[in-house]
Amino acid sequence: MNVIDIQGATKVFNPGRSNQVEALAEIDLAVEPGEFITLIGPSGCGKSTLLRLIASLISPSTGSVEVNAKPAEQARLDRDYGMAFQTAGLFDWRTVTKNIELPLELMGWPRLNRRRRAAEMLELVKLSEFAKHHPSELSGGMQQRVAIARALAFSPSLLLMDEPFGALDEMTREHMQDELLRIWKETGTTVVFVTHSIPEAVYLSTRVLVMSPRPGTIASTIGVDLGDRSAATRDDPAFFKKVTEVRIALREVEG
Amino acid sequence: MNALKGFSAPIVAGVVLFGLWQGVLSLFNPDGFVLPAPSEIVGALIENWDEVYQGVRITGFVVVSGLIAGIVLGIIAALLVTRFRTANETITPLAVAVNAIPIIALAPIFNNWFGLTSPRSNQAIVVALVFFPIFINTTRGLTQVDRSQIELMESYAASRSRITREVRIPNAMPFFFTALKLSTSLAVIAAIVAEYFGGRQDALGPMITQSAGLTRYDEAWAAVLAGTAIGAVLYFAVLVLERVAMPWHSLIRAHGDDK
Lengths: 255, 259
Ligand SMILES: Nc1ncnc2c1ncn2[C@@H]1O[C@H](COP(=O)(O)OP(=O)(O)O)[C@@H](O)[C@H]1O
Ligand SMILES: [Mg+2]
Prior knowledge:
- By secondary structure, chain A is of the alpha/beta class.
- Chain A contains 8 helices and 10 strands.
- The model of chain A has no long low-confidence stretch (mean pLDDT 91).
- Chain B has one domain (37-247): MetI-like (MetI-like fold), CATH 1.10.3720.
- Chain B has 11 helices and no strands.
- In chain B, helix 8 (160-197) packs parallel to helix 9 (204-213).
- Classes of the chains: A alpha/beta, B mainly alpha.
- The interface between A and B is medium-sized, with 26 and 23 residues.
- Magnesium ion is lined by residues 47-48, 162 of chain A.
């Protein structure tokens, strides 16, 4: 069973009006459990739009989007996925623990279970000592880790991430990539990850989807098989080969 | 008490200001005719304590009841307007325009509506003056929400009212308190000026006009001082309330810049 099944999905914003935007043209995509998919493409090509379609935050103009073999809308109502954005989007008025508990509160978890789960998640992202802090007391990288912990708190089978490390410096970013891969391996979650960094795409994913400029399509798919990632991977000639391959594919679509 | 932290600077500044005032006047203006020295004002305050106290009660009631009604109405209107997008897009700009009317100038007209000696007209002025900034600012806070926070809540299939409670209302708190701090001083000014034109005759407003008319400036200033005290107490109460209601906010001020 596919985690994501998209058939002939298109998205036109403001149809029939003067500000009409054809964001996505004919997307077909099937994602299997446990895959780590990255979407890469020129800015404005519809990466976020595609992610929002999967999340059912917007609905397709034509075509269908299914998540866990049901309409995306139903999957959203069933809370089948967790989501993280470029801005951590934490609530300043909640402590770190309370931020992670938010989805659990909405799902009606009892208090003690919430507490316990939040503590586990904080351990996972190595922020246990900041449990009672407020987000404004944390660095950008730490906030992003809290956002990821929040997205993972209810063990969704699917994790949707829109340039979550985009605002981080290079060192923090590489560290976060390793943390994310560790979590991905530990939890067996399927991930769809938007990025505009080629090395990040290659380092993280099992499959890189290169999108064409607007209206976005999936122009090419590049499988990545580099085995377990480590610091050495970033210096591996095979890694560079993949980076070059993605770069060429991107150059082709940008024309 | 943590909530009191940071209030000492204005107190010190006030003491210095009054000291300078007293010092300069004792050197250059021994008659104290136009501007009495603080010592004379305090003297007049003690001498006329009963009347001033009565004035504070009457004017204070107008201010506090007007503030509370204005706040409640402003918040209700803001919540209603944010619930319906078209209402927000039509009513809010209108409110901004109406807010430009110098409401205090309506005092004589309000007297006509509510009766010359009734405190109702003064209350109505305060309500109208407080309502608009509270309404406009709170609406802003309820609507100017981080887009990704709303999407996050939608991704959890949260209901509209839940999103309002979890995201919009906390987001609106700093906006609301900014308006409230502005409103407390405005409310005192509005009440006293409105009382110049009507309402109860034992309020602070008539006390100021009557004393000044009789060239009893020290008494007029004593009443002004009493009005200032009402404003200061209210402002202080709002500051404490703000820190209690938004404990996270002082953290943002302390840490916000080094993110
Ligand atoms: N809600 C919206 N209304 C109108 N146009 C939109 C909306 N969201 C995105 N777009 C447009 O759709 C195109 C794709 O946007 P987006 O998916 O955000 O691109 P990317 O994430 O790849 O940079 C852009 O031209 C953008 O302006
Ligand atoms: Mg985007």
